[in-house]
């Protein structure tokens, strides 16, 4: 019975660690999705503005097209830079999550195996008692 309690405690601890690591990953994934959305929105803005700028000679004469190109290039670079940092952070967090899941799974497997072995021993003992009753 002592091993039962120890395995149950280990299961509780490893499950808590897994849930903690899982909770750390969600904000990172949300931030990554937000940045990818910003990149998509920026791409759409560039495509929409390209038609407008191509048709307007006044904007080209004033250099608005060059300023817009510079702004959009800088914005894309900044978002991509932040996305790279978030992706690296996500990979580290996912490694920790996988490790926590592995430990959780191993403890659950050990506990299930222990319960199965105990049940098998109990059944064998009952069978032996039954056979000796003759």
Total count of domains: 1
- Write the CATH architecture name: Orthogonal Bundle
Helix and strand composition category: mainly alpha
Q: How many DSSP helices?
A: 3
Helix-strand pattern = HHH
The share of residues in helices is over 70%
Q: Say what the CATH topology is.
A: Helix Hairpins
Number of strands: 0
- Average of per-residue pLDDT values: 90
Distance between the termini: 31 Å
Shape: rod-shaped
- Give the C-level CATH assignment: Mainly Alpha
Key words describing this protein structure:
134 residues; mainly alpha; Helix Hairpins
Explain this structure to me?
By secondary structure, the protein is mainly α. The protein has one domain: Orthogonal Bundle (Helix Hairpins). The chain has helices at residues 2-55, 57-62, 64-131.
Give the topology, please.
Layout: H1 2-55, H2 57-62, H3 64-131
Helix pairs in contact: 1-3
Give the structure's gist in a few sentences.
With 134 residues, the chain is an all-alpha fold.
């Amino acid at each position: 019975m002592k091993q039962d309690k120890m395995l149950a405690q280990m299961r509780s601890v490893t499950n808590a660690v897994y849930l903690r690591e899982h909770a750390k990953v969600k904000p990172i994934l949300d931030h990554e999705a937000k940045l990818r959305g910003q990149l998509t929105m920026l791409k759409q803005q560039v495509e929409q503005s390209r038609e407008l700028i191509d048709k307007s000679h006044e904007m080209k004469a004033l250099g608005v097209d060059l300023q817009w190109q510079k702004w959009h290039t800088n914005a894309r670079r900044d978002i991509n830079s932040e996305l790279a940092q978030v992706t690296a952070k996500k990979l580290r967090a996912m490694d920790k999550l996988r490790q926590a899941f592995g430990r959780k799974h191993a403890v659950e497997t050990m506990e299930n195996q222990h319960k199965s072995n105990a049940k098998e021993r109990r059944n064998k003992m009952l069978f032996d008692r039954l056979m000796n009753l003759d």
